Fold:
Amino acid sequence: MPQFENVNSKVVKAQVRPGQQVASRRGAMLAYVGEVSFYPANASNAGGGMGGMGGGSGLMRMAGRAMAGEHTALMVGDGQGEVYYGYAGMCAEIIHLDGSQPLTAESSRLLAHDLSLNSSVVFLGRGGVRAMAGAAATGEGLFTTQLVGVGEVALLAHGDVFRLEVRPDRPIVVDPQAYVGHVGQVSLNVSLNVSWRNAVGRGSGEAIQLQATGQGTVLVQASEQKF
Amino acid sequence: MTQFRLQGHKVLAVTVEGETFRAVTGAMVAYDGTVSFKHAGSGGGEGLRGAIKRRVTGESLALMECSGHGTVYLAREAADITVVPLAGDTLLVESSSVLAVGPGLRTDVQFTGLRGAASQQGLFTTSVTGNGEVAIVSDGPAVVLEVSPQYPLVVDPDAYVASLGRMTQSFVTDISWRNVVGEGSGEAFSLRFDGTGIVYIQPAER
Amino acid sequence: MSQQPLNPYTLPADDNINPYTYCIELQKPWFMQKGRMIAYYGQMSFEALSRYSSMDAMVASRFSSPLYAHDWVVATGHGKLILGDRGYNINSYDLDDGNLTIRAANLLAFQTGLQLKQSIVPGFLTLIGTGKFVASSNGPVIFLEPPVRVDPQALVGWADCPSPSHHYDARWMQGFLAMASAAFGRESGEERQFDFTGAGTVLMQSSENVMEDPALLRTVQAQAEALSLPQMNTLAAALTRRSQQQY
Structure:
């Protein structure tokens, strides 16, 4: 039996067993069968390691605080049973990781994942530390969580998720509001593009675009609004 | 030739090979190849006269011109997309429901008559005419309903998205209808379509 | 790619057109929530329930909930009536000499063969008898069987099994972090669930977003009149905390 499966496009059913805990976004638990308890994840009990949150460099501590500001607190589900996860009526997409390729996804889009996966937070953006703190507000960058190992991840998207293949000879450009994540060795370059501003149509303020190069798959959602 | 293809229900993939098509500004979520995007002007590509008309009537439609070689992926707030093929006829659609207009189609502003007087929509709407495809969006998958002299159709104005064909619109304002309107709904009337044509409605009220 | 247009002959009778729209073939009267009709063919009229009051025995005996009567109408006539609810998923269910308790905001319409009563659980209605009803939900409905614990906001209703009790996660309540969070007023949102046991079916929606119920708001406002000033301030603070917690 797979650990995660879609019950419908918006709900994921996860098997929880001793030693097979599930980390999830706070507030995402809809129902459960069996004996499962839920408590907040922090650096000390977060199993596989939320390396970017507790310790690490000053930069990563700031990232942790900024992430907390983005309300991406995680909960751990522990025990024996099945848990139904969903969030805000958004679509839930399951990605199976077989250990060969990492998954990188926008941190606030993680619905649930196998706690044994190794995770770290990477900030993608321009402008250094100050930009990090204001990233959510200005749209100048994004926090991404990288998950490595063998296990399953459920991601949230506004609308369906479709996959675009990236090849060395075929780079892709993605609207950062529509970017959900990517699998494989894909480099995302965040850049300003003046003519992009025409395409993206936001009034004042700078608009960034994401250029994806390399080899892998980019996950894009069917909406230009983040949520 | 520019091709409109649905990728699922909420994403439109448009493949261009050297042509130009128009799409709502901001609707692009991804693209590959070499495509350039340019504001189509405040007239939505209808020229100076179009710009003035839109300014005067308040029916704004912010379009951008996409040209080049590649595939552009368009979406609008995870709304459902319906592609309407036009063969010389005219589609009337609310500007907030337009997603993309194929090359060779002409857009214009049209007076809808008193329908708009008390509703959330303006007095004017956008018309799309010619040969080609136009992609419209709806809050939930659109339901396509036929209207004929044997069966006129009554529609909640907030659920109305677009219409095609030779029809007349009138109001239904009887007290009984007002009972169906819930709290918080602005509509005190409903729309009745008589004639021959097609109406697109959405499962949600605006 | 382009859909075939539907007309009164090709529209389904008492069935979904797509997951978000439902078509009723109106012959005998139906009770319907106001504001959910999006289009119809034929001749129909919609009378507010409040107009019926005690005059029509049929209506009075079938719809016993003064709190909600304000939001409901009786649809009579014939034709094809299309329902939609803010883009939420819509489904119909057949009750066969059964009873079902459902959140009032999720119930859209039901045949007059069923009886409606107000449940003692605030915000919920109970349907009894044999007949069809139409309900909407935020995301598709998921059916579960007890024993199961459901987040209160994800719950849509339950059939045949006893009313749920509250379940508090003991581990969560004892943990230090929990106490600290509670002291600062930060709830995880996971501490309390509805606990179902027995034989029956539990209906859950695909989201913890509750659909708005105007009658529930009226009830709470009316009850708040009875609060003292210090109690009102406590309530205001709790509401502010909750509104800041979203996303």
Q: What stands out?
A: The radius of gyration of chain A is 17 Å. Confidence is low (pLDDT under 50) at residues 43-71, 202-206 of chain A.
